Please model this.
Amino acid sequence: MSDTPATTLFRSRWVEPPANARELDSTALPAGFRAAGVAGGIKAQGLDVGLLVSDAAETVSAARFTANALVAAPVSVSREADLGALRAVAVNSGNANVSDGERGLGTAAAQQTTAASALGLEPQAVGVASTGVIARELPRQKLVAGIEAAAEALADDAASFSEAIMTTDRGPKRGALELELSGGRVRLAAQAKGAGMMSPRFATMLCFIETDAGLAPETLELLTGVTVKRSFERISVDGQLSTNDSVFAFAGGASGVEVEPESADELVLGQALDALLRQLAIEIVADGEGASRVCRVVVRGDTELVEPVARAVANSPLVKTALLGADPNFGRIMQAAGQALAGRAPFVVDLSIEGLQVESAGTALDLEESEWRELEQAVAAPEVELDLTIPGEGGETEVFFSDLTHDYVSLNADYSS
Amino acid sequence: MSDTPATTLFRSRWVEPPANARELDSTALPAGFRAAGVAGGIKAQGLDVGLLVSDAAETVSAARFTANALVAAPVSVSREADLGALRAVAVNSGNANVSDGERGLGTAAAQQTTAASALGLEPQAVGVASTGVIARELPRQKLVAGIEAAAEALADDAASFSEAIMTTDRGPKRGALELELSGGRVRLAAQAKGAGMMSPRFATMLCFIETDAGLAPETLELLTGVTVKRSFERISVDGQLSTNDSVFAFAGGASGVEVEPESADELVLGQALDALLRQLAIEIVADGEGASRVCRVVVRGDTELVEPVARAVANSPLVKTALLGADPNFGRIMQAAGQALAGRAPFVVDLSIEGLQVESAGTALDLEESEWRELEQAVAAPEVELDLTIPGEGGETEVFFSDLTHDYVSLNADYSS
Model:
């Protein structure tokens, strides 16, 4: 359970460190926020109940949820809450509270009302989230007692909170920044979890975002929507859309610095949030169950087709095992792209791996021995980039994905029982 | 490389042994057919070039090919042949001849003309097929020499031919039957290969079907189409559509027994072909790279939705690893179904595993401890059946799929290099 060194938040070459930003300790919270994580006994061991609260009455919020038709009870309950004016969120790991009918909905409601009561809030001001095994009863009494204990343990950092939301994560995923805006300094922080059941939207992932900047609800809503699309919606570990995905963003305003819509400050805040969420999203992929390597596939061409082609490459177990093997077997990339383009021959596709072109108009280039060596070195790196051009114009997308490893198989063959 | 015991062709409980049929040695060929497999040096070791010929000038044929937009050169060449009147097929394993542009097309053409010349046929009467690594040059001289050697080695059984078409297969997949028709006895045989890159149509699989019954071209076309749909199009190892899938069916007529359209004999022959192809298809799944267990998911409900739901379950790495772990983690089945039904809530779905209902209207049932034990035993069997009912009516489908194992990861991380 190693921590993220505070000095190297933006470790991925695919994330541009934002301007006007200074890194804080990764567990820092913006002014006016408190959080805690406790061991409620839902998991066999470790922290499993988390509580996050914004003390400012004028807090605005935004949220995003899974698109799966099978929706977890906490997602159903959260959707009915006052999503633009949430003040807190109560989370548990170890059990996803899915497929448990009225009982599960009752437990998610108890999760909400217990947190509200402990924090002196209306239930409508509390969001709830769960992550863990599906289709098992979530022990309500343990959860309720855990939330009450967490309310007693609230502190001004996210250290224990960010651990309490983990399932198969190798470690916490979090980051905090101080931003220089025209009106003064504000803080921005986020804590995420997620490893398996990731994609095609934004994964069995949870993310909690806090800022002490003052924002209009529409501004927070806009920034959250745009940055989630560019981060958690662009990753895939195993092509599996979770029943529990949730992102909650809070702006409390305790810094006293207001961010006006369409201002330079909004841009600074937006870019910082974008960088932070992209970095956390890539960390989720890098921590994809058993992952050893992260790949970015960029697809350019027909606007309708770039997305299915990128997803087909990212979710192909053949591409993912070749990535594990550091094997420049690019025929599998072409095969996956061709599958997504089924019925749309001719297959006039270009492919480059780390800038070295390997296919031109659907035909493999005759590489020199030295080029093969170069390719083999490139695909053995921790981050690998693929650039694919398909017929058509106007579209461009990217998907970050992990390799498929023995640890993924072991973790998921043994997870529930 | 174990052989199929002649007495136990229909090993799967999901295949009804056909009426009026007697099993022959699995390597048997119908009268008028000859075949051979030789070591041409395309693979590092083992047989890798196969040739099959029907001696009767009046032979009729039918064929089916992959839907991938990236099409192997042999598929392109075969599609231009006289597909209703083929007399022979020349096959190689070890290299799929894909993405090699004009050179690859030239090699596939040489494959066709060499076989035609060695057999005294027109090139238009010869189909070609390849299987193996993608996007590498297929050594043309080795292939040509191999075909010439195979033409010299033709025999009246399919033993070496069915071995020459294998790639990562653990053993040959083949079967032969003698059928009692109203006009006398006919033989029916098929040889298939396939293990990885399987689905969603009919897989990196090749299948060659022979009968010495006399059939009109339309009858063979019809029988081939229907039975391929019910067999190779209903399996998935890894959700990957190959660039090379090919099925070739030949009816030579050497038995002197004619099968009339819409006759009782056509039904007997059709049912036998159906059983034979379903058995071979299930063997392909059971031999899915590293597979240890085969699962059938049956989905009933809305006609448009049964197929995507069945595919989502069959291709979920979470469902497939749970199957490996003999873990009755049915929440993952529900999650995968919900992903395919995204945007179509409410999620009113029933699920039974081996006849034991575990979900009703989207809610997990409270199982007794004894029922959990029963479930755990059921999912540890070599064949596991799932029955899923989704909203809507009129649709029913099935998909056979394998588990995702460490051997799949090892095989595919190391395959090309």
